[in-house]
Write a structure and sequence with these properties.
heterotetramer, A: 347 residues, alpha/beta, 2-enoyl-CoA Hydratase, Chain A, domain 1, 2 domains, B: alpha/beta, eight-stranded mixed beta sheet, binds zinc ion
């Protein structure tokens, strides 16, 4: 099953990237992606759905406090699949941006997502999520209503969901507010999408003590889609038309649609128990550490694992490491035995 | 089996050759046109209340409704008398509506898809929920469960029926218990809230749909607006307890114009209870949400 | 099992009531109970727990919005039982009443109850609830945050809970706000507790068009504990010391404690499936109607059932009908066959 | 097996014969007394941060701690360099604390009751969660599950560790997945939030305890107060992001003074994981909450 997914990930990366003409400045390159990911004309969830889906019935509300415009969701038909969609929604103009809170969800947004995830599970519908947020809303009212708890519960719900989850990072994958709806069985990213543990400005403010160093932080965090693919956090990168998704949203959606359908097809054939176990394995493999074993004396001999391979790869300076390392990185954990109590019937 | 009422048919309060004034915009509406427009004001969109008969006729494919438990009739368990005895009120409501109580349930089809459906009729003692209404809602849920058919409930009710005392209150438990078993089995329930959906009906089955729909501008709330305003000296927010208020506060999925309701139900059921077993969807199993 | 509970209900009604010296005015009698139920010195959940339980660790919060002082809950030890307690809490003075909102819960109170019910189920702890509220808070903020939905969810949670639930109406059983935590396997009531579908003032305002007629409404609704026992809504009535619970809270708690322990003992021995099925049966039997069967022509011949028996009982004018009818009323539904799809193994 | 650290023991920043000024009340506290008082100011109750060693020593019965997975060490997966390389920061943290990373987990006893316990040490890079911390939390949950022992996690962390990039973010999924399996099995998890519990730690395991406890006046929040105040021009409410604020907003069950924490944990576990199988409680089964 893992091999099947890996094979699919490699195939799915179409159309193939042309080799870059000259080695670009990696700092400028990643910062260009950050800018493209934030481009207000970039298609967001609703714009993509208009092209991707033949039908969309939006469902509103968390049944607890409100209806958050920063996260939309509902029932959609993508090709022959009936799915539940959940996605961040930024505005395309100032009025909509205010209404959508610039795609920064409050607790009610994440709790709407949880409700829709559970609806999907109850009726056996696969979930497709679209991720594009600077992060969860950092204001006082979000803290008051427990934004951290809501994010944790949403991630927790995704780990146990007994239906397929396809997540697509379409723009900004900003920290916990992104991950809250991004913990899919497979994570697809658009070419200029970015994904990071903290915003580059936030990282720069803390570690460089000035937000001006955001581009340095973006590079240091390896936040480009390709670098995230190299890390294994992203499974497959979908190239964007022309100078970026915003120049041709329809073509962008067309390309995404093909990959989403491929993954839905594979995942729909996977029994729920296996799906949940594979999802747990996928995330469990995304940690980089060494185990020196028990005993008081450290044995600082590194085994060649994920970390080494990544370090070598990044030091090579390539921006498109995903191609050389493969669609999904599962190495570094191969020698370990205790990956939890999962059923691994087909291994 | 067509809908049949053993009692004298309700006297239509709007004879077709007369006019009705719209409480929304004040315009005089020719009743024939109002009926053609599903009793929605063509000028301002005000949704008039519907009888159970009219509601079923609008939502279901013609000739598909088969009523169940039509023999359930209310009793007067606590010999309730205020200015008038409950028994007399029941008799008057029966005469006025031709119904035995405020709920009708049965099986029917919506765009060819079979469903269990229960509708409340505000004309029968304000659509209030006593033992018969609670029992019918529960039996509708059990009928849906037994045949694995989606359940639709259209609410229009002032809440629990005071004249049955706490037995009316117990209907909250009865209906919610039946719906919980339906939910555990993965059978879909769509709640449609029409004007008004308040009190014990809103605090039980109407709230807990897998999908909650509402007609535009329906009064939906727990405490009546007058009670609420009178008891606590809050300045009530605009649109308080109307569909749009409920939508913005996260308790309703969609507000649906009556003319679109039938198609909307069919569309939603196309996801939650796909005809032919959902070949396109993921593995279907009765997992507990 | 039903017989066992019924038998227990009869025994548990101790100490036996002395016969009233002269037939009291029933309207004055029920109104006196309403006044006693509302007496500010009447012991509420925390006061009763101080006497009932050897230990109480309060747990706070709904994990969603706030901590509602009108409903308290936590972990308690009652005799040899470890239980989860949930109860309304009114204040004993103005300051506390404001903090407790006069025992009128907002949505966060009911959602705290749901959280604690689910905690109890997860760890196999029986639930004991104490009910004493004028009703759910009727203000605009409660409506905004979905008080009706919260009540519905709480009742729904109680119908499926796979642990025993003992509910005690200690004071005012005010409508949905009371029922939200009162849908137990067994419902105990203090002698002067009242239980009604709407407050007597509210009922009078609507049906008599003046709140002045509240006593008439109280009588018409049969809201006294004894009348509720006659209806089967209450299983057992526990007599209060002296002029009422407020004159001797410790003795009141002692009497309640004995009955609670008896029911916990019986219910703890019941397998979860049976518990849930019996609970469903209990409530399903609390409806009064007739079934004329299918066919266009009504056959208005009443079978002697619950309704008849109740009518005869109430017309007799007795205030202590529960004694004559028995601890639990299950009649009137005996001839019916379709009480749901419950397992009724032991019948 | 007693706690053992392979590296040089942490240099205590408070030599026992010297004084420490309390940041809460400004009073000078004799370190020997401060240690005796579990590092709580006797004057104002300010709770100083604890090392992992001190926390374990305070909570567990003496000599009962048996560490697990002490051989897990961090790597530098994305060759992260800001003003200083991640590798150098790790080395400095190791030297300063004697720890290999910010989490220690193992088995031990609290008042004779065996538990799985994981504690974070703010002294190691602000208690931040990288791959080792996430893995240790997950293994603690799995250890608790395997032995059906209650899990206790004491958090003190600034959040996810930026230097591990999105791999640090993925630890939210890893820890929550492991805890969800623990929850499904009906094994209790008590989360204890010490100062500070913020960012990705609060947005993952720390939030989802069956019971959530907090030490008094601990900083607990998602966005840092500075970030929050700076990003959005809200006037921050009083006590913002402190334990008491979280309690009143419904996210914490109890605020517990450090001197009572051990007894409180024993008391709560007496309900959720009764020794001897819970003879007094109802039928126990692993039902999904
Ligand atoms: Zn009009
Ligand atoms: Zn101090």
């Amino acid at each position: 099953m893992v091999d099947r997914l890996l094979g699919l990930a490699k195939q799915a990366e179409h159309p193939p990237q042309a080799a870059p003409a000259a080695p670009p400045d990696p700092r400028a390159t990643v910062w260009a992606s950050v800018q493209l990911a934030r481009n207000p004309r970039r298609p967001h969830t609703l714009e993509l759905l208009a092209e991707l889906a033949s039908e969309f019935a939006e469902l509103h509300g968390d049944r607890l406090f409100g209806d958050d415009g920063a996260i939309v969701g509902g029932l959609a038909r993508i090709d022959r699949f009936r799915v539940v969609v959940v996605g961040h929604q930024k505005g395309s103009d100032t009025e909509e941006n205010i209404r959508r809170n610039f795609g920064m969800a409050k607790p009610e947004g994440f709790r709407k997502a949880i409700r829709l995830f559970e609806l999907a599970e109850r009726f056996g519908l696969p979930v497709v999520t679209f991720v594009d947020t600077p992060g969860a809303y950092p204001g006082a009212e979000a803290e008051e209503r427990g934004v951290a708890e809501a994010i944790a519960r949403s991630i927790g719900a995704m780990t146990r969901l007994r239906v397929p989850i396809v997540s697509v990072i379409t723009g900004e994958g900003g920290s916990g507010g992104a991950l809250a709806i991004a913990a899919g069985d497979v994570v697809i990213a658009l070419e200029n999408a970015v994904y990071s543990v903290i915003s580059p400005e936030g990282c720069a403010s803390i570690l460089w003590r000035t937000p001006e160093k955001a581009a340095d932080a973006a590079l240091a965090m390896r936040m480009s889609a390709r670098d995230q693919q190299a890390l294994g956090v992203v499974d497959v990168v979908v190239s964007e038309p022309g100078e970026g998704a915003h120049v041709d949203p329809a073509e962008t959606a067309r390309r995404l649609r093909a990959v989403i359908i491929e993954y839905l097809t594979t995942l729909a054939a996977t029994p729920p128990d296996e799906l949940v176990a594979l999802r747990a394995r996928r995330y469990r493999s995304l940690g980089a550490f060494q185990d020196l074993g028990p005993g008081p004396e450290p044995t600082p001999v590194e085994r060649p694992g994920l970390a080494d391979r990544l370090r070598r790869a990044f030091e090579a300076g390539s921006r498109t490491l995903g191609d050389t390392i493969g669609g999904r990185t599962v190495g570094g954990r191969d020698q370990r035995e205790d990956v939890g109590r999962l059923q691994e019937d087909d291994e | 089996m067509p809908l049949k009422f053993p009692f004298r048919a309700r006297r239509e309060s709007y004879p077709p050759d007369l006019w009705t004034q719209c409480p929304g915009c004040g315009q005089m509406l020719f009743n024939k046109h109002l009926d053609r427009d599903l009793r929605v004001c063509a000028a301002c969109g005000h949704h008039f209340r519907l009888t159970a008969t009219a509601r079923l006729a609008q939502l279901l494919d013609p000739g598909t409704f088969s009523e169940r438990d039509e023999g359930l009739i209310p009793v007067d368990p606590i010999s309730f008398v205020d200015s008038r005895a409950y028994a007399d009120r029941l008799e008057a409501a029966r005469t006025a509506t031709g119904l035995r109580d405020a709920a009708v349930w049965g099986f029917g089809s919506i765009e060819g898809r079979r469903v269990a459906i229960c509708v409340l009729d505000f004309g029968f003692m304000g659509g209030s929920m006593g033992s018969v209404v609670g029992e019918k809602v529960a039996r509708a849920a059990e009928g849906a469960l037994a045949e694995s058919l989606p359940l639709i409930i259209v609410s229009s009710s002032g809440g629990a029926r005071m004249q049955e005392g706490t037995l009316a209150l117990m209907q909250l438990v009865i209906t919610l218990g039946a719906l919980d078993r339906l939910r555990a089995a993965g059978v879909p329930f769509v709640s449609v809230m029409a004007d008004p959906t308040t009190g014990g009906v809103f605090a039980s089955f109407a709230s807990v749909g897998d999908v909650n729909l509402a007609e535009p501008n329906a009064l939906i709330g727990f405490a009546g607006a007058r009670v609420s305003a009178g008891t606590i000296a809050d300045e009530l927010p605009p649109g308080f307890q109307r569909s749009e208020f409920l939508l913005s506060h996260g308790f309703i999925d969609r507000i649906v114009h009556r003319s679109a309701l039938r198609a909307e139900l069919a569309r939603i059921l196309g996801y939650l209870a796909p005809a032919g077993g959902g070949s396109g969807s993921g593995t279907r199993e009765a997992s507990r949400g």
